[in-house]
Design brief:
The termini are far apart. This protein is 37% helix and 20% strand. Helix 3 packs parallel to helix 4 (82-99), helix 5 packs parallel to helix 6 and helix 6 packs parallel to helix 7 (180-189). The protein is built from seven helices and seven strands, in the order ααβαβαβαβαβαββ. It has helices spanning 18-22, 24-34, 48-57, 82-99, 113-122, 140-153, 180-189, and strands spanning 38-42, 63-69, 104-110, 129-134, 154-162, 194-197, 204-208. It has one domain (35-205): Rossmann fold (3-Layer(aba) Sandwich), CATH 3.40.50. The longest helix is centred in the middle third of the chain and has 18 residues, at 82-99. By secondary structure, the protein is α/β, with parallel strands linked by helices. Strands 3-2-1-4-5-7-6 form a seven-stranded mixed β-sheet, with helices on both faces.
């Protein structure tokens, strides 16, 4: 970041390493195996996961990547400048797209995930995504809606990833404000339609085996 707060044109700008800590090690193994061409992520923040996917896949084949975020922040982001976070997302993803050798169709959906996901379903895009990544609101009711709608958009054989399975950002801890109870409910209800993929406890990985 330069002295005036702008991003150097040829550098990625991230203010945290959350993705590297929680996901990258597993994704380095899993993403080449899944080799997704059509991806949906709920919760994009500064674009770390989107950049990873573009870098990992954008030299092998064309990529259709849909990113959903309000860039308004959740209860854990009250002290952040979310306009700056959104600016970094656009900078980082544009730089990644410019470096890809294959065609990248990056579609940004700015809005609440329930409305954006429902719109994709209504447009007839059900069971069309190879990979769905859920990392938006961490409040259980929101996570459950994202999971149900995201599952409708996921192909049979595709993979769904839930981030922050054991996240707890409130003191005292309130389970309704945490992802775990919603992820557990979704996985229990859909147990006969899922294969569980072994992974560190910070994330949950499932493969859709039936509609």
């Amino acid at each position: 970041m330069s002295a005036d707060g702008t991003a150097p044109a040829n550098d990625f700008v991230f203010t945290n390493n959350w993705f590297d800590i929680t996901a990258k090690g597993v994704w380095d193994i899993l993403i080449p195996q899944v080799n997704p061409a059509r991806i949906l992520e709920v919760g994009s923040f500064e674009g770390a996961s989107a950049v990873y996917l573009i870098n990992a896949l954008g030299k092998a084949h064309d990529l259709d990547l849909h990113c959903i975020d309000t860039w308004g922040g959740g209860i854990e982001h009250q002290d952040l400048d979310m306009a700056a976070v959104e600016s970094r997302f656009h900078h980082n993803t544009a730089l990644a797209v410019s470096r890809a050798t294959k065609q990248i169709n990056l579609v940004t959906h700015k809005g609440y995930s329930d409305a954006c996901l429902a719109k994709l379903v209504a447009e007839g895009q059900g069971e069309s995504f190879d990979l769905v990544y859920i990392d938006g609101s961490h409040q259980a009711p929101d996570v459950l809606v994202d999971a149900v709608l995201g599952f409708k958009l996921l192909k049979v054989g595709g993979v769904m990833i839930f981030d922050d399975y054991i996240w707890s950002g409130t003191i005292p801890r309130d389970p309704i404000l945490c992802p775990k109870i919603a992820i557990d409910a979704f996985c229990n209800i859909n147990a006969r339609k899922l294969n569980f993929i072994a992974a560190p406890i910070s994330q949950v990985y499932v493969q859709k085996i039936a509609s």
